[in-house]
Specification:
The chain is α/β, with parallel strands linked by helices. The protein is built from eight helices and 17 strands. The strands form three sheets. Strands 2-1-17-16-14-3-12-13-15 form a nine-stranded mixed β-sheet. A six-stranded antiparallel beta barrel has the order 5-6-7-10-9-8. A two-stranded parallel ribbon has the order 4-11. A hairpin with a 4-residue loop joins β5 and β6. It is globular and about 65 Å long.
């Protein structure tokens, strides 16, 4: 590896150094019927020790010195099946409707979408989803993406509620790519209250209301933010030097009440426990931009990779991530590439389930 891709103190910027094998069968295809029964790999950064447990036992590592931050975004049914005016089937996925709405201030019903069809529709093509919803392709399809202008009597969010499908990750296979009935429930966190995501903040899928209540009884504080996860979370890094990657933007909202709760905990010396990489990026973004956690409403495109100096987050709950992804870079920045890859190797050896419906890690 060239010296340009490695710092003197050992941090590598070569994306290939964040690769690892993903054996057949390791990708979880079904959710746990009991969310909290997922396995939990605890990674202790100070010692490098690894502990094997279950998520319902996470309270063993959390107490009154911790404040947990949850992402309360709710996944919307952003996937639509329609037909071109010539009769060909088209599948459409709105990539991040909240970003489009924020940029246009709600004036335009145009959204960037992933478009799948046997023959890519040309600009001007009409796609009919049902008698109440149609869309016009307004840009050429490039790398599977195009901009569509939707025509409906109701706001797009309301139309999706009636006609959309759960946008499961591409690595979760379903017959005919139609989600199962249980996906509607299990691909949401139990505290999801703010509709807008097209991918679930999956680290939070393991919590039950009872488990959250038990943590509160132990003195663990809980705060909430909203970051609407976009489809870009699944985008691979396509550059050799990770410093040249550009992060997708997502819509973030931190209320005054929750900002005060988090900043107050920081000032009192509490440990901030981020539930998921979305929360990590949101908190670190605001702390970087504003100097501390304050109320915020707008777009967040914070990119965290090895060498980053964390300002707010002390602990992290996360799932197991794809190799060579921005997510594996983030956890490697938090716990070191060497430790994370060793933990992943042990998890693979012990049969942990990976990715959205898989098992969890607690990084201390």
């Amino acid at each position: 590896m060239g010296e340009k891709l490695r710092r003197d103190h050992g941090i590598t910027y070569n994306v290939d150094d964040y690769d690892f094998p993903v054996p057949s069968g390791v990708v979880a295809q079904e959710p746990y019927e009991e969310r909290e029964k997922a396995r939990l790999l605890v990674v202790e950064r100070s010692t490098g020790k690894l502990y094997h447990s279950y998520f319902f036992q996470i309270g063993q590592w959390l107490d009154e010195k911790d404040l947990i931050v949850l992402n309360d975004t709710r996944v919307i049914p952003a996937r639509l099946i329609g037909r071109k005016d010539t009769g060909g089937k088209v599948e459409v996925l709105l990539i991040d409707p909240n970003v489009d709405i924020a940029k246009s201030e709600g004036r335009d019903n145009s959204f960037e979408c992933i478009v799948k069809a046997s023959k890519a529709p040309k600009p001007g093509t009409t796609i009919c989803f049902n008698k109440n919803l149609r869309a016009e392709v307004t840009s050429p399809v490039k790398e599977g993406k195009a901009r569509l202008r939707f025509y409906a009597e109701e706001p797009i969010q309301e139309v999706l509620k009636s006609h959309g499908l759960v946008p499961l990750p591409p690595y979760i296979r379903r017959k005919g790519q139609i989600p199962l009935e249980k996906d509607k429930e299990y691909y949401q966190t139990v505290y999801a209250t703010s509709p807008g995501a097209v991918a679930s903040p999956t680290a939070g899928l393991h919590f039950t209301k009872e488990l959250l209540d038990s943590l509160s009884e132990r003195g663990v504080e809980i705060a909430r933010i909203t970051l609407h996860v976009g489809y870009g979370t699944f985008s691979p890094i396509r550059v050799k030097d990770i410093r040249n990657h550009r992060m997708h933007a997502e819509y973030l909202h931190i209320t005054a009440e929750e900002a005060e709760k988090i900043s107050g905990a920081v000032s009192r010396g509490k440990r901030i426990v981020a539930v998921g990489t979305t929360v990590v990026r949101a908190l670190e973004f605001v702390a970087t931009e504003k100097g501390k956690i304050v109320p915020y409403k707008g777009l967040c495109d914070h990119y965290i990779y090895p060498g980053y100096q964390f300002k707010v987050v002390d602990r992290m709950i996360t799932n197991f991530h794809w190799p060579k992804s921005s997510l594996i870079l983030l956890v490697s920045a938090f716990a070191s590439r060497k430790l994370i890859l060793r933990a992943y190797g042990e998890a693979l050896d012990r049969g942990y389930r990976f990715f959205s419906y898989g098992d969890a890690m607690l990084i201390l």
